[in-house]
Design goal:
Length: 464
């Protein structure tokens, strides 16, 4: 079959950056080689897009040959006795759990949505609510096959130095073609989820440390509008794998409902959210969420399916449209445990001072990892969602740069899958000597500099 492309307007998941590109969807290795030849013939760059789920500009580039992975989506082998799965790069996280859960296995690390591709997840080295225990997805790979810009395929294993550059390399150190992933054995398709309201930053970190020793998952919502003694208040959820019936492993037990209370179609909920998606309403909603959390379910444990707990971003279809027309950015910083409270407290104080509060804050615990471009720290991350408008865009980027300074002073890190605002000087301070080592591997896998993204150019990850 002839490989055909089309001119398409591509945007980041946050809808703040967009570009026209020539979109292709290869189905085999030879299609990748054909696209590399086409890039040379037409003097264009190649953009590895995955499913386009990165929030900022990692999956866009003007006039590029953009490569979507959606059709390279076969599971090549699955061993339910060992949990080793081999799949092409376009298999999604949702495809993974649907393929293996009935055998009692779950992906070892998942993001907040099930729609990223395996190749994209590896390129960004995703983490989940179990990051403090399981680390990043790259730590669960047996091997991966990577095509360099000449079309040759290399099998990389965790003991090879190149592996540390490709995992987390943002799709700029070769084309991930397929990978072998070690899945996680689970006793059922359910979790025991414990909820606790916390009234301050002190209590946030105290409860996190209490549960980090034995919980399988740990995450907290933070009210970014709260001030004074209430600053840092929120709702923590700790979860453990639950024993249960084999029926909980079936897809029908996991599938998210299409309606709320069996009445309201979820497909229209984003329209309601859009009406509320303004500063005054979000202040009230955050306060209401906290107060309800102190009385409903507080201190109690309930069973929840793995899908419902893991993929909250998929619960309301097209929720991001509530941020139109300007879109949103997600700012996520990762800070060592010794300085995390100071950084996050000051980040939120800056937001409040600028009247640019994040409408949603999420706190997670992490651990270090061995990759060259790494967000992993022995500490915490705070993810912040900001609505972008024509009147606040410039001020919002200035705020992000001020928050970057706090993070870098504290020895913190960033996450390219979420980034929209990093500058070259921020990147250099974050990565230090790892940047030059990573660039060396990029030159070996792509000596002609064919693999490019807007993120790579903006941040200076790609040399001028």
């Amino acid at each position: 079959m002839k490989l055909e492309g089309r001119l398409a307007r591509l945007c980041g998941y946050g809808m703040t950056a967009a570009a026209d590109a020539h979109l292709f969807q290869p189905t085999c290795e030879d299609d990748f080689r054909a696209l590399l030849r086409l890039a040379r013939l037409t003097s264009r760059k190649v953009l590895l897009r995955g499913a386009g789920r990165s929030y900022g500009d990692a999956a866009i580039l003007p006039e590029a040959i953009a490569v979507g992975l959606e059709r390279l989506n076969r599971v090549l082998s699955w061993d339910p006795t060992t949990g080793l799965l081999v799949a092409e790069a376009g298999v999604t996280i949702g495809d993974l759990w649907r393929y293996t859960l009935q055998d009692g296995w779950w992906p070892p690390v998942v993001s907040g949505t099930m729609f990223p591709t395996l190749g994209g997840a590896i390129a960004m080295n995703i983490h989940g609510k179990n990051a403090f225990r399981a680390g990043t997805i790259g730590e669960h790979l047996e091997w991966l096959d990577v095509m360099d810009s000449s079309g040759a395929v290399h099998r990389l294993t965790p003991d090879s130095a190149a592996f540390r550059a490709v995992v987390g390399g943002a799709g700029l150190t070769g084309i991930i073609v397929r990978a072998a992933l070690r899945m996680k054995r689970v006793p059922s398709g359910d979790l025991r989820v414990y909820a606790q309201a916390v009234d301050s930053w002190d209590q946030q970190f105290e409860v996190f440390e209490r549960f980090a020793g034995d919980a399988d998952y740990l995450v907290s919502w933070v009210d970014c509008f709260a001030r004074g003694k209430s600053a840092g208040r929120g709702l923590i959820h700790a979860a453990w794998y639950a024993e249960g019936s084999p029926a909980t492993l079936r897809a029908e037990h996991q599938d998210l409902p299409d309606t709320i209370l069996g009445l309201v179609p979820k497909s229209v909920v984003w329209r309601v959210l859009k009406l509320l998606n303004r500063r005054a309403a979000m202040r009230l909603l955050n306060a209401t969420k906290y107060r309800l959390g102190t009385v409903i379910g507080n201190g109690k444990t309930e069973h929840q399916s793995l899908v419902a707990f893991s993929f909250l971003l998929d619960y309301v279809p097209n929720w991001r449209w509530a941020y139109l027309p300007g879109g949103f950015i997600q700012y996520q910083s990762f800070v060592p445990k010794e300085t995390a409270r100071w950084v996050f407290e000051n980040q939120i104080a800056l937001q409040q001072e600028r009247r640019l509060e994040s409408f949603l804050g999420v706190l997670k615990r992490h651990r270090p990892d061995p990759f060259l471009i790494s967000h992993g720290v022995d500490g915490f991350s705070l993810a912040l969602d900001f609505k972008v408008t024509p009147s606040n865009r410039e001020r919002l980027w200035e705020l992000a740069h001020e928050m970057n300074e706090l993070v870098l002073e504290a020895g913190g890190r960033f996450y390219l899958a979420k980034d929209s605002t990093l500058r070259p000087e921020d990147l250099r301070r974050w990565l230090g000597p790892n940047l030059e080592e990573w660039r060396g591997w990029r030159r070996r896998f792509d000596p002609d500099g064919l693999l490019v993204s807007s993120l790579g150019l903006r941040t200076g990850l790609i040399e001028p």
